[in-house]
């Protein structure tokens, strides 16, 4: 049963959580949490997203709070550590926050930085994490095909599991795969934005533009919709997060637990990137894994992290804009 708009808003809480380090251009993460009969849901599209894109995040929150998720196929999921675009000398402190993770995702192509910064950061990760660790890099669509070929040619020396969305368009990803093959650069390509930010996510598979896909629950409209997309693509999937609280991470765990196969560590160990959380016991990795289970939200934490009244009003208006699109 779907709630009314006013019931949804009455059951919601808007939070503003400081980040430990600047990540994706933000210093505070805002999100709206809502409690329904099936549990807690999270609505946290980034501030620059328009109503059409943000509406999928609202569908995901409704699924979590009012419908629940498919039955899990496993009782825990492996996760990767995440290293923002910090200087190489800060890598050790970042990795220390992740308990037992054997895979590390490294942000590259940060605005204002260059490939030398990326190489130093990835080299530091390889040195600290060791020879057996898996390292993946994420460029967030920042490179052209030529730039990506050159950059990945240098970064490949550190043994990359894959490069996530190095270029913006599906066609560029396809051309990059061809360019890498022609240049003897062995780096698989993962599609992220080309899956979650487009009307037709299956073009990635049709154009053979990626070796695997990155799927995020909220941007795709919920766990069930994400499972449908993975099945239709027919490519290995990596489940990732969008800088969520433990409530949003729990939805990602539900997707990872429901997938028939889970060949790669999940990008769900990101709660530690924030300086606080809405759960008394945040959903963070233990021995490199996250458990499948409920995440009790602490109402004292909700009050402590409450956003200012004007931001609450802003988020409520955003829900109203998206609600009409869902209908």
Care to describe what's here?
The chain has a 7-stranded parallel β-sheet with strand order 5-6-7-8-9-10-11. Strands 1-2-3 form a 3-stranded antiparallel β-sheet, sandwiched between helices. Helices cover 39% and strands 20% of the residues. It is an alpha/beta fold and 327 residues long. The protein folds into 2 domains: 5-67 and 300-326, Enolase-like, N-terminal domain (Enolase-like, domain 1, 2-Layer Sandwich); 76-297, TIM Barrel. Helix 6 links the parallel strand 8 and strand 9. The chain contains 13 helices and 12 strands.
Offer a concise description of the structure.
This protein has 327 residues and is an alpha/beta fold. 39% of the residues lie in helices and 20% in strands. The chain has 2 domains: 90 residues, Enolase-like, N-terminal domain (Enolase-like, domain 1), CATH 3.30.390.10; 222 residues, Enolase-like C-terminal domain (TIM Barrel, Alpha-Beta Barrel).
Q: Characteristics of this structure?
A:
Enolase-like, domain 1, 13 helices, 327 residues, TIM Barrel
């Amino acid at each position: 049963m779907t709630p009314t708009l006013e019931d949804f808003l009455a059951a919601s809480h808007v939070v503003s959580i400081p980040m430990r380090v600047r990540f994706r251009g933000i210093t505070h993460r805002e999100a709206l949490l809502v409690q329904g009969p099936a549990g807690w849901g999270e609505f946290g599209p980034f501030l620059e997203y328009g109503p059409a894109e943000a509406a999928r995040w609202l569908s995901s929150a409704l699924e979590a709070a009012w419908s629940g998720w498919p039955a899990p196929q496993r009782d825990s999921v492996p996760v990767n550590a995440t290293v923002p675009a910090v200087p190489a000398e800060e890598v050790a402190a970042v990795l220390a926050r992740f308990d037992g993770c054997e895979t590390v995702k490294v942000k590259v192509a940060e605005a204002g930085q260059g490939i030398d910064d990326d190489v130093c950061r990835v080299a530091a990760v390889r040195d600290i994490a060791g020879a057996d660790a898996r390292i993946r890099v994420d460029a967030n669509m920042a490179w052209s095909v030529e730039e990506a070929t050159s950059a990945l040619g240098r970064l490949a020396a550190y043994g990359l599991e894959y490069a996530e969305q190095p270029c913006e368009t599906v066609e560029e990803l396809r051309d990059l795969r061809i360019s890498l093959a022609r240049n003897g650069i062995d780096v698989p390509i993962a599609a992220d934005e080309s899956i979650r930010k487009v009307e037709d996510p299956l073009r990635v598979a049709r154009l053979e533009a990626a070796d695997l896909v990155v799927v995020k629950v909220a941007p795709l409209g919920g766990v069930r919709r994400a499972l449908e997309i993975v099945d239709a693509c027919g490519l290995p999937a990596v489940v990732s997060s969008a800088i969520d609280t433990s409530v949003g991470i729990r939805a990602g765990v539900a997707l990872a637990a429901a997938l028939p196969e889970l060949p790669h560590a999940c990008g769900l160990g990101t709660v530690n990137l924030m300086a606080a959380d809405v759960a008394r016991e945040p959903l963070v990795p233990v021995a490199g894994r996250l458990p499948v289970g409920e995440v009790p939200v602490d109402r004292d934490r909700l009050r402590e992290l409450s956003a200012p009244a004007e931001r609450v009003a802003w988020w409520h208006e955003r829900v109203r804009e998206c609600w009409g699109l869902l209908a």
